[in-house]
């Protein structure tokens, strides 16, 4: 019977700080700087060997065309030995490119998984340092979404975007150099497609960004509702709330569908748009190249190589467009993770100058003019005072919302009072370390929770160093010993949440 108002439906998150999130992410990746440098080197080497291929193949094409024409005229033949050497060289280069690509892919996959591992470890440690208020304001599914979906999205996007970003930029620079070495005029014609491509990419990114952010936010809402329905299935059935629950889920699912559909649709538009623009440039280059070849300005092999480079030049533009979408998704997920990691934590340690010794606690509890509210404008406890002596049994009764559970939460320092004080043997509970304070209480929770393990391990959870005899003694004190011994396996029976 918690006195704190439960949250209702979650609202859509505000616009994300894209640049700020990327700065935070880069800062978190500093420890992997050496691995990232190695990945970049191998990615660049793989791209360089791949870029040089068409230029070398052009020599074989020219030799084949020249030899064929000479053979038709009866003045020569095709030099297959020369062409064979070129093809073997080309094969070796492509094998090197594939090897470097495999190595950098293997390294980048391992790096991205290490990043996910570190983030999950940080989140797991953070959970234990967060105040109870954080979890009472959020659904379990929303928190789990940050640990699972957002971290997975971050890892997958990081794995793909870093490599593609490096190879795309290297390819564009390398291809541009190769194109200029073949024909500056044809290069200028090919570059005319670049402004058009950039404008289209910017437009798609601008419109898709908000939908990617909404998709990540709504996914957390859906996960929260699924978790709540699963956990409270019996309650829902008992009160015939199936229709209402289904209606709420359908509303959230519709929002997720709308944002996911729009983000994926806009992302999918990039490929056909870029293909169309690339084909226009390809046609223009083919026409001009044919004219130059007919006039003897360039060779047939150069035309073949240049056309390949034009294709290779538009491909990294398309990849950069895809990378921009992945970066948007990665930033949306990363910011949700960083928001969680940056949440204010409980002050676990008391002021050393006033720290009290927990050994002095003997059971005297005093509430002195305590005032408290979960939100400042809504006070739940007004000027409450009470003195409980050691060994005295006290029962707190009252209607729902009167503040019974809240008083226990204040005593355990899940929350701190707004005014007044709570003392143990004359010592303010804020002068105790939180862990030391809570060790002095034996708290029976309203909501039971069974961890996966034996009955013995579940009872021992409050004090992990307790012996088997002490666990059995505690069960006897709670009148549970006989019941436990009648179960299959007794104290060694395996339990789970169900």
UniProtKB/TrEMBL annotation:
This is ABC transporter transmembrane region. The lineage of its organism: Bacteria, Bacillati, Bacillota, Clostridia, Eubacteriales. Its main location: membrane. Residues 37-329 form the ABC transmembrane type-1 domain. It comes from Faecalibacterium duncaniae (strain DSM 17677 / JCM 31915 / A2-165) (Faecalibacterium prausnitzii). One of its GO terms (cellular component) is plasma membrane. It is found in: Cell membrane. One of its GO terms (molecular function) is ABC-type oligopeptide transporter activity. It is a multi-pass membrane protein. It comes from the Bacteria. InterPro entries: AAA+_ATPase, ABC1_TM_dom, ABC1_TM_sf, ABC_transporter-like_ATP-bd, P-loop_NTPase, Type_1_exporter. The chain crosses the membrane at residues 32-52, 80-103, 165-182, 188-205, 280-301. Keywords: ATP-binding, Cell membrane, Membrane, Nucleotide-binding, Transmembrane, Transmembrane helix, Transport.
């Amino acid at each position: 019977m918690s006195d704190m108002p439960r949250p209702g439906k979650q609202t859509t998150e505000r616009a994300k700080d894209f640049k700020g999130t990327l700065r935070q992410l880069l800062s978190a990746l500093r420890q992997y700087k050496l691995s990232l440098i190695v990945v970049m080197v191998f990615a660049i080497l793989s791209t360089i060997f791949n870029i040089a291929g068409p230029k070398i193949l052009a020599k074989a094409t020219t030799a084949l065309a020249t030899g064929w024409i000479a053979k038709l005229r009866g003045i020569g033949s095709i030099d297959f030995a020369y062409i064979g050497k070129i093809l073997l060289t080309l094969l070796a280069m492509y094998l090197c490119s594939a090897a470097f690509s495999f190595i950098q892919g293997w390294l980048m996959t391992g790096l991205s998984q290490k990043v996910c591992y570190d983030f999950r470890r940080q989140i797991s440690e953070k959970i234990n340092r967060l105040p109870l208020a954080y979890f009472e304001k959020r659904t379990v599914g929303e928190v789990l979404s940050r640990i699972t979906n957002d971290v997975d999205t971050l890892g997958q996007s990081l794995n793909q975007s870093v490599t593609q970003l490096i190879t795309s930029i290297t390819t564009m620079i390398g291809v541009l150099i190769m194109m200029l070495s073949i024909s500056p005029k044809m290069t200028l014609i090919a570059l005319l497609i670049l402004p058009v491509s950039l404008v289209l990419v910017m437009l798609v990114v601008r419109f898709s960004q908000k939908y990617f952010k909404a998709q990540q936010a709504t996914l957390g809402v859906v996960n929260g509702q699924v978790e709540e329905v699963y956990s409270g299935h019996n309650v829902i059935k008992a009160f015939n709330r199936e229709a209402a629950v289904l209606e709420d889920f359908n509303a959230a699912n519709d929002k997720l569908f709308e944002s996911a559909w729009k983000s994926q649709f806009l992302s999918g538009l990039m490929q056909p748009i870029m293909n169309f623009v690339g084909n226009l440039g390809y046609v223009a280059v083919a026409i001009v190249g044919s004219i130059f070849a007919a006039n003897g300005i360039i060779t047939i092999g150069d035309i073949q190589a240049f056309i390949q480079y034009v294709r290779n030049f538009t491909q990294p533009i398309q990849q950069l467009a895809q990378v921009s979408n992945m970066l948007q998704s990665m930033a949306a997920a990363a910011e949700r993770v960083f928001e969680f990691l940056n949440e204010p934590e409980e002050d676990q340690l008391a002021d050393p100058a006033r720290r009290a010794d927990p050994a002095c606690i003997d059971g005297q509890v005093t509430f002195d003019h305590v005032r408290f509210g979960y939100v400042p404008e809504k006070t739940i406890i007004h000027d409450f005072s009470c003195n409980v002596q050691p060994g005295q049994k006290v029962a707190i009764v009252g209607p729902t919302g009167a503040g019974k559970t809240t008083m226990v939460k204040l005593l355990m320092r899940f929350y701190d009072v707004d005014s007044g004080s709570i003392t143990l043997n004359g010592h303010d509970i804020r002068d105790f370390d939180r862990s030391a304070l809570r060790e002095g209480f034996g708290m029976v929770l309203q909501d039971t929770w069974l961890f996966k393990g034996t009955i013995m391990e579940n009872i021992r959870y409050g004090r992990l160093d307790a012996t088997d005899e002490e666990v059995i003694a505690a069960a006897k004190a709670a009148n549970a010993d006989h019941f436990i011994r009648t179960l299959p396996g007794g104290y060694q029976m395996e339990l789970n949440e169900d």
